[in-house]
C-alpha cells in the first residue's frame, strides 16, 4: 500500500494561518492556535519552519514513550490521549518540535485527520499537499529541472 | 494468583495497565489508592496557570481499567505481613496477595529551617496543593524555595496568574540537577528578563511571621512574602515497609533489574524505589514519571511469567518554563561526574538556542538544550540513539 | 583515499533514453520501476533537452547536515554518502534538504539515494552513449572537458552532412562559419 504523507513546501507558505485554524477546528471545534497540531513558525517576517508531525517510522517518540500512549498505526503515529501523562519525553526527542502542549498539559500531535487532512483542503498556495510518498521527489526534481531549462532558454541554447 | 498494588500513582496505575495488557486476569488485581482518580503531576502547573478544572489532571486510563474489572480500594495500607502474605489496611480489613507491588511514591522534602510550620507554608506536589493555590485571588507575594523543575514551573505558573514571585536557590545555578552552567546562566537571564526574581546561591534562613507567613529571611536580607512554596525535592515515601526487612538505601527501596525487592514476590517502582542508569549501570534515585512507568512494564512482564530484565533508563526530560524550552537527554555533566565518570562538555550557542553535548571517551552520554523561541528543533534523538546503541 | 571517486554525466551526450533509470531500479530492487531509481532523467521535448538528476555526492552534504538521526554518513571507499537504515527514522528531512532533488522516497516513504552501487555503478555500464562517467575526480573532469572539445570538433568536421545534435546550435554555427572563413582564407594564401 502506498504511504501517503504531508508534503510541505516551505517556500510557498505565506503564513496565512488557514491550516492552523482548520486543524484546530477539525480537532476541537474552535479556532485556537494552541489546539492546532500544525504550527507555522515565523521569524522576522519569514516562515522558517512548519512544525508538523512527519509520521516517522521507526519514530523517536514511540521509542521513548513508556506509557504505551504513542504507537504506529498503518503508517501513522497516533497519540492515545487517555494513556498520556504529559511526561513530555516525546517532546524532548522529537527532532521537529511536532508534539506540542495544549491546555492543561494535554499533548497534541498530527493524526492526519484519518486520511483527509483539513490543512491540505484549505491551503490556498498549495504549500501543503497530501500525496503518495514517491511523488515527493517529483516536485523536488521538477523545480530543479525548471531552473536548468530557464537557464538554457535564457542563454539561447535549445 | 492475586496481585496487590499499593499506591494509585503513575507506577501503580501503569503496573495494573500493563498487567491487563499482557493478559493477566483483571479481577485478580487490587489497587490500594489513597487518592482516586489517578492524576499526573506534570499537569498541575498548567492547570494552575490556565485556571482550568481539576479534571484536566486526571489520567484517562483509570476508566479503562475499571471497565476491565480491576478492584480499587480507597484506603491507606497500614502494614505488610510478609509471612502470611497479606496487607493490613487502616480501618482493619486485610487483603491476601501472591505478588505485591509497592508504588507508594514520594513525599515532598521540607528543609528544617525556622518557621516552616507557619500557616501559608506549602509545597507544590500534589492535587491538594493545587486546590489550595487555585483559591488564590489578587496580587500576592509568593516565595518559591528551590529552583528545580518543580520550583521553576510553579514559579512561572504563579507568575502567570498574577502573583509576584521570588525564587530562592541554595546552589549557584538554577535547575541544578537538570542542566549545566552555560545553559542555566542563560536561562536565568531569560527568566529574570521575563520578570521573575531569582536569587541563586542564597540560603533561606528563616520564615518570618506570627501565625501566617510575613516574610522570608535569606542571606541576611528580609523579603516580604504572603505564601511560601517549598519545592526542595522529593523523598521516598517508605514508612510502610520500615520493619519488614526489605533492603533500602537511605530510605529508598533497592530493586533488581526485574523490579523485585530483596524479598521474593514483592516488587517496587516509582518515586519510592531506586532505578538503574543505562550508561553506568549504577543505581540512582530518579523521581520521574516515566521511570515509574518503565519499571511498571518490567514488573508486569515478570509477574505474568515472561522474564524480562531492564537495561536501565536514559532520562528524557522536556519542560517549558515561561516560554523557554529545556531539553535534557542522558546525563548532565554534574550527574555524570557524581556517577564516577570523567566527562567533558561541548557547547554550541546561537541567538535563540544553546545546546551542549556531554562526551565521555569520545562517545556522547548526554545532551542538553535550552531554546528561547517557538522552534524546538534539536539533536536530542541522535544522542539518545547513540547512547542506546553504545551501552546496551 | 588517494583520489575521490565521482560519478558525472555529460548532459550534452544524454539523449533521454532512460536506460540508466531502469538499470538502477533493476540493480537495487530487481524490478523495472523508474520511481525506484536513484537517477532520474527529465526530458523536455519542446527544447530537446534531457537533464539527468542524480546525487552529486557533495563534499559538504546538506542531507547529512539536515538529518536529525545522523543516519547519512560518508563512505571513504566508494566516495558515496550512504543512508544507515538502522538509524533512519523516515522523516524526509533529507529529501527537502537536497538542493538537487537527488533523494527520493519509495512507496513506503523510505528514502533512497545513489550509493554508487558500492563502487561499480550499473548506470555507467548500461549507458549507450557513454554519457555517464565514474572514476577518480581528475579523470572524470578530464573526460567531461574532452567531451566538450570532441563535440566542437565533431560539429566542425560534420558540418556539411547534417545539423549536429548538440546543444550549441547557434554558437556552433557561428564558430563553424568563422572556422570555414579562416580555412578558405588560409587556402588562398597557399601556405
Description:
The complex is a heterotrimer of chains A (158), B (392) and C (191). Chain A is built from 5 helices and 8 strands. In chain A, the strands form 4 sheets. A two-stranded antiparallel ribbon of chain A has the order 1-8. Chain A has a two-stranded antiparallel ribbon with strand order 2-3. In chain A, 28% of the residues lie in helices and 21% in strands. In chain A, 46% of the residues are buried. In chain A, a hairpin with a 2-residue loop joins strand 4 (70-73) and strand 5. Chain A has one domain: Alpha-Beta Plaits (2-Layer Sandwich). The mean pLDDT of chain A is 87. Chain A is of the alpha+beta class and 158 residues long. In chain B, the strands form 8 sheets. Chain B has a 5-stranded parallel sheet, covered by helices on one side. The mean pLDDT of chain B is 90. Chain B starts with a strand and ends with a helix. Chain B has 392 residues and is α/β, with parallel strands linked by helices. Helix content of chain B is 24%, strand content 30%. Chain B has 9 helices and 27 strands. In chain B, helix 6 (181-193) links the parallel strand 11 and strand 12 (197-199). Helices cover 36% and strands 17% of the residues of chain C. In chain C, the strands form 4 sheets. In chain C, strands 1-8 form a two-stranded antiparallel ribbon. Chain C has 2 domains: 5-136, Alpha-Beta Plaits (2-Layer Sandwich); 146-189, no CATH class. In chain C, a hairpin with a 4-residue loop joins strand 2 and strand 3 (49-53). The radius of gyration of chain C is 21 Å and the shape is elongated.
Amino acid at each position: 500500500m502506498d504511504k501517503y504523507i504531508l508534503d510541505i513546501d516551505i517556500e510557498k507558505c505565506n503564513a496565512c494561518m488557514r491550516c492552523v485554524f482548520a486543524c484546530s477546528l477539525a480537532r476541537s471545534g474552535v479556532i485556537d492556535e494552541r489546539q492546532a497540531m500544525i504550527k507555522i513558525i515565523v521569524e522576522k517576517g519569514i516562515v522558517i519552519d512548519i512544525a508538523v508531525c512527519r509520521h516517522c517510522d521507526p519514530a523517536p517518540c514511540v521509542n521513548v514513550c513508556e506509557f504505551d500512549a504513542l504507537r504506529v498505526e498503518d503508517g501513522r503515529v497516533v497519540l492515545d490521549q487517555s494513556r498520556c501523562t504529559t511526561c513530555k519525553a516525546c517532546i524532548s526527542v522529537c527532532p521537529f518540535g511536532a508534539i506540542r502542549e495544549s491546555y492543561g498539559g494535554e499533548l497534541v500531535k498530527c493524526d492526519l485527520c484519518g486520511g483527509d487532512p483539513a490543512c491540505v483542503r484549505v491551503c490556498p498556495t498549495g504549500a501543503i499537499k497530501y500525496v503518495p510518498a514517491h511523488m515527493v521527489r517529483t516536485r523536488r526534481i521538477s523545480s530543479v529541472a525548471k531552473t536548468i531549462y530557464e537557464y538554457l532558454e535564457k542563454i539561447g541554447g535549445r | 494468583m492475586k496481585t496487590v498494588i499499593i499506591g494509585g500513582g503513575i507506577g501503580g496505575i501503569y503496573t495494573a495497565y500493563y498487567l491487563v495488557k499482557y493478559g493477566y486476569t483483571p479481577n485478580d488485581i487490587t489497587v490500594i489508592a489513597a487518592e482516586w482518580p489517578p492524576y499526573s503531576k506534570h499537569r498541575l502547573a498548567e492547570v494552575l496557570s490556565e485556571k482550568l478544572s481539576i479534571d484536566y489532571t486526571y489520567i484517562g486510563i483509570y476508566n479503562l481499567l475499571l471497565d476491565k474489572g480491576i478492584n480499587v480500594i480507597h484506603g491507606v495500607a497500614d502494614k505488610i505481613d510478609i509471612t502470611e502474605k497479606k496487607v493490613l489496611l487502616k480501618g482493619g480489613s486485610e487483603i491476601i496477595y501472591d505478588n505485591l507491588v509497592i508504588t507508594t511514591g514520594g513525599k515532598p522534602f521540607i528543609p528544617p529551617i525556622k518557621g516552616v510550620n507557619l500557616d501559608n507554608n506549602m509545597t507544590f506536589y500534589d492535587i491538594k496543593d493545587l486546590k489550595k493555590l487555585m483559591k488564590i485571588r489578587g496580587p500576592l507575594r509568593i516565595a518559591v524555595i528551590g529552583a528545580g523543575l518543580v520550583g521553576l514551573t510553579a514559579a512561572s505558573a504563579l507568575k502567570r496568574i498574577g502573583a509576584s514571585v521570588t525564587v530562592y536557590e541554595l546552589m549557584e545555578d538554577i535547575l541544578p540537577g537538570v542542566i549545566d552552567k552555560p545553559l542555566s546562566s542563560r536561562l536565568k537571564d531569560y527568566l529574570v528578563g521575563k520578570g521573575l526574581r531569582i536569587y541563586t546561591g542564597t540560603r533561606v534562613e528563616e520564615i518570618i511571621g506570627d501565625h501566617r507567613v510575613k516574610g522570608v529571611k535569606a542571606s541576611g536580607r528580609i523579603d516580604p512574602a504572603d505564601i511560601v512554596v517549598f519545592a526542595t525535592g522529593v523523598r521516598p515515601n517508605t514508612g510502610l515497609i520500615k520493619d519488614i526487612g526489605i533492603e533500602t538505601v537511605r530510605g529508598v527501596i533497592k530493586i533488581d533489574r526485574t523490579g523485585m525487592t530483596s524479598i521474593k514476590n514483592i516488587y517496587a517502582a516509582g518515586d519510592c524505589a531506586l532505578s538503574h542508569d543505562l550508561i553506568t549501570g549504577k543505581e540512582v534515585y530518579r523521581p520521574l514519571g516515566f521511570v515509574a512507568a518503565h519499571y511498571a512494564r518490567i514488573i508486569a512482564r515478570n509477574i505474568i511469567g515472561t522474564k524480562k530484565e531492564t537495561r536501565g533508563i536514559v532520562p528524557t526530560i522536556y519542560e517549558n518554563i515561561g516560554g523557554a524550552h529545556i531539553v535534557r537527554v542522558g546525563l548532565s555533566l554534574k550527574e555524570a561526574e557524581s556517577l564516577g565518570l570523567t566527562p567533558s562538555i561541548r557547547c554550541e550557542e546561537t541567538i535563540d538556542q544553546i545546546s551542549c553535548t556531554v562526551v565521555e571517551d569520545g562517545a556522547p552520554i548526554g545532551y542538553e538544550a535550552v531554546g528561547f523561541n517557538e522552534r524546538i528543533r534539536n539533536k536530542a534523538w541522535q544522542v539518545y540513539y547513540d547512547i542506546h546503541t553504545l551501552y546496551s | 583515499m588517494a583520489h575521490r571517486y565521482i560519478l558525472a554525466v555529460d548532459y550534452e551526450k544524454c539523449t533521454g533514453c532512460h536506460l540508466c533509470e531502469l538499470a538502477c531500479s533493476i540493480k537495487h530492487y530487481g524490478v523495472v520501476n523508474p520511481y525506484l531509481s536513484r537517477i532520474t532523467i527529465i526530458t523536455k521535448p519542446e527544447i530537446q533537452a534531457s537533464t539527468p538528476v542524480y546525487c552529486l555526492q557533495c563534499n559538504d552534504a546538506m542531507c547529512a547536515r539536515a538529518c536529525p538521526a545522523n543516519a547519512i554518513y560518508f563512505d571513504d571507499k566508494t566516495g558515496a554518502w550512504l543512508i544507515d537504515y538502522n538509524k533512519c527514522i523516515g522523516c524526509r528531512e533529507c529529501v527537502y534538504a537536497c538542493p538537487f532533488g537527488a533523494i527520493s522516497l519509495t512507496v513506503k516513504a523510505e528514502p533512497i539515494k545513489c550509493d554508487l552501487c558500492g563502487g561499480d555503478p550499473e548506470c555507467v555500464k548500461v549507458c549507450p552513449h557513454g554519457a555517464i562517467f565514474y572514476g577518480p575526480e581528475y579523470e572524470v573532469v578530464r573526460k567531461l572537458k574532452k567531451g566538450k572539445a570532441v563535440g566542437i570538433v565533431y560539429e566542425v568536421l560534420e558540418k556539411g552532412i547534417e545539423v549536429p545534435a548538440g546543444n550549441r546550435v547557434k554558437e556552433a554555427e557561428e564558430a563553424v562559419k568563422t572556422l570555414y572563413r579562416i580555412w578558405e582564407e588560409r587556402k588562398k594564401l597557399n601556405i
